[in-house]
Amino acid sequence: MSQRFDFSVNGKPVSVALDNEATPLLNVLRNELGLMGTRFGCGLEQCGCCMVLIDGEPVKSCNRDVSTLAGKTVTTIEGIGSHERPHPLQQAFLDEQAGQCGYCLAGILISAKALLEKNPSPTRKEIALALDGNICRCGSHNRIMRAVEKAAAVMRAGERA
Ligand code: FES
Ligand code: FES
Asked: Is the Cβ–Cβ distance between 135 and 48 less than 8 Å?
């Protein structure tokens, strides 16, 4: 028998009916809500490409049961910016061409956003630490680090303006 699960995604309330309360959030996002930006990689909390924010904290959604989300706020890559109004991180990643295949990037952008919310002026070491749970198989790490630094500078300048 199916149960309903209520939480919010990208600022909107959602209510999904599922038979299995252990259904991973990642499956709910992609299969029930049509939000395809969050990716499946390993399914074992190893790669980080399924990263989302839950109440502002970066969480790997491939192993997060839907039953734990009552009243929680989930933010996916679709919720941080759009083609028309990219987040400074998204713009910096484009400017720096910080990626090759792009498969890892949604997860990396989510982790970077969580970092910059807490720490607007991270050092390289702090950026590396914040992205430690995200694997980029294309080896774009240098450009990714540069893009995060650039976005942080743009966001700081925006706050001063
Ligand atoms: S798919 Fe979740 S960490 Fe790899
Ligand atoms: S850009 Fe290909 S895995 Fe990171």
From this structure: yes
